[in-house]
Amino acid sequence: xxxxxxxxxxxxxxxxxxxxxxxTGVTAERPAPVFAEFVLPSxxxxxxxxxxxxxxxxxxxxxxxxxxxxxEFLVEDVEAEYARLKPLVENWVQAPTTMPWGNRxxxxxxxxxxxxxxxxxxxxxxxxxxxxxxx
Length: 135
Fold this sequence. Notes:
Layout: E1 5-10, H1 13-24, E2 29-32, E3 35-39, E4 44-49, H2 50-53, E5 70-74, H3 78-85, E6 91-98, E7 103-109, E8 115-121, H4 124-129
Parallel strand pairs: 1-4, 5-8
Antiparallel strand pairs: 2-3, 3-4, 6-7, 7-8
């Protein structure tokens, strides 16, 4: 099994696409006005309008109601990302902090309230855990 993607359902695809283009530095592929996809080396981040949720069943999802999933990006330098994103992000949850498991991490919310974590392994143990992953 290979993890392929995560999809965010939203009322405003264009707003989230603009936000994630700035966060990731990747231009979204837009095969339809109601759908966008960021193809990254490790997987894809998809953004879809609530209209598309009907294809999965009428009550399968609810836009902008997530409070349990954290979307995580492995980055080369958390401090540099924090400085770069300060003007863009409105809802900071945590400034760069070294976590007990050895990652330097910062957390913020996207315009729909989804939680994002940008992190860099900084301890020897954390670096070893991520050696097989690439940036």
